[in-house]
Amino acid sequence: MVKILAIDDKLDNLISLEAILKYHLNCTVIVAQSGIAGIAKALTEQPDTILLDIKMPEMDGYEVLSHLKSDEKTKHIPVIILTAIRTDAEERIKGLNLGADAFLHKPIETMELIAQVSVMLRIKKAEDLLRKKTQAQLQEQYEFFMNVLNALYHPFYVIDANTHNIIFANTAAKLTKSDGITTCYSLSHGNDSPCSGKNHLCPVAEIKRTKKAVIVEHIHKQHDGSINYVEIHGHPILDKNGDVVQIIEYAFDITERKQMEYKMIESKKAAELLSLAKSEFIANISHEFRTPMNGIIGMTDLLLETKLDEKQDKYVNILKTSSGLLLGIVNQILDFSKIESGKFELVIKNFDLHSIVEHINNLQLPLSKQKNIGFSFEINDNVPVLLKGDPIRLEQILLNLINNAFKFTKQGEVRVNARLVEATLSHVTLHVDVKDTGVGIDRNKQFALFKPFSQADTSSTRTYGGTGLGLSIAKELCQLMGGTIGFKSTLGKGSTFWFTAVFEKQGQDQKVADTIPHESHPAITSRKLNILVAEDNFFNQEFIIELLKYQIGHDVTIAENGQEAINKLSNEDFDLVLMDIQMPIMDGFEATRIIRDPQSSVRNHQIPIIAVTASASSDDEKKCIDIGMNGYLSKPIHAQKLFAMIDTQFARPN
Fold first, then answer.
1. Three state DSSP letters for 491-510
2. What's the predicted TM-score (pTM) here?
3. Among the four residues 106, 358, 378, 537, which has the most C-beta atoms within 10 Å?
């Protein structure tokens, strides 16, 4: 049944209103004789319409109206103001501004009262229906979104930006009232203060600072005590002033991913340690090979300078060739190790392409005559020959391809051609072909040619030897030079291997500073030198003594290790030190530090020191120069290079 609340301080007015309304509208009438009583009954009875007198003691109708329209429970109830003032516009405007829905003037006409109340009742009924429908729709939407949020696999939270309190958490968050978790930081790590630090960046603080979405990684202590890695995505909710009031967070469990990352890191570390161990092993093996090779090649060279009969000369030349091949294998393994570890670097210098061709011709023509195979090396006329790059490695690529061509060719010829591909003001790109008339390569075996340790002939009875590293190293060198490498081959008809490389042009005012060394001896200082040789290997000692003392005429003193060298330099004057790097008791590096130390007992702290080492590493060479050595020679020692190095320290005056 419809309920109408009448508020008036005059009892006779209330009795009259109650009688009229009950008779015409068959409704329940609730009466109140004061504003305070009217407000209380409006809250408890929730009437469908309120009739409100203006002129009342203690609290007038306007104050009552203000209370009713400001309260969520009563603001939707239509209010008809009863007033005896007909002409005061200010009173009417005041009432309308406070939320009055209609006015009735005293004395009240019955039918006007019934009409106004009926209209208000219809409006109230329509509003109630609309409100219920809206509430039902909102409830339906709410339930839909709740179902969506609870269906999410990942935890979803709404957090108060100021208090860090968790306002809402979906089912995946697995939070219950018994957990006692009220804030995001008590959830994430069980502390009583917000996250802090680089490893636990607080998403709430960061979002409040930037007013932008953030993604952070955290280690979370779950409510069940387990530890998980999570990736938190946070998004701000702004008020009308643009301030962050709430924050939406959803978290992805990345524990499995982090565990995989840690495993990958550990695997990478293990691989790096393995690579380092392998590099050190290869370096040590290289050293152990080069030290005896120095004695073999050195003594072979000295033996060739003595008077030999024809058979002896043949045997010694075979020995020299074989030791040279063995040294080539050691060098290939060392080069491959440096390339694989990423430590390989080109040595850029000026060179003359003609010098490289001349040197290759000198090396290959004897083999060409021996095998009765034609050999030619042509450079097209438009190719610049004064270039800047790494001539040693360029020659290494060429010799690798040319030697392979000779190896697999029994008759016919090997032809090399260099042509210009592209030229700019500062650089040129060269294309070099090495063409042979040899056996060719089976199509089924061509795919693996440039892979390390692979060969076209892999059978146990293979005809052609080799480490299987040459082409792999050549490919890496070409790439370091900004080019590439490839081939075409027909089985039984020969092969053509080609490569490209980019070089700088030399400036017009530059001269060719470096060329491929020739075999002639450089000038040797005419002064007799007193040379200290720090070397622990007996055969190398004998070779250097023979070379420097008996062939050149210098005085040579041997020190078995670095400490013995320091002792001798403290008691005697020397002109030069040949310093081995790896020695027992004290190595060459430590000995050099002591020699260069002004506080040490050594007589001459500026004495020239030439490193003589079997390492052949660019890192070792740099370390030698940085520590204060004056030169660097790698074993096996070639007499010409040793003489040239000494000559740079003691050159003859013009």
1. CCCEEEEEEEEEEEECCCCC
2. 0.46
3. 537
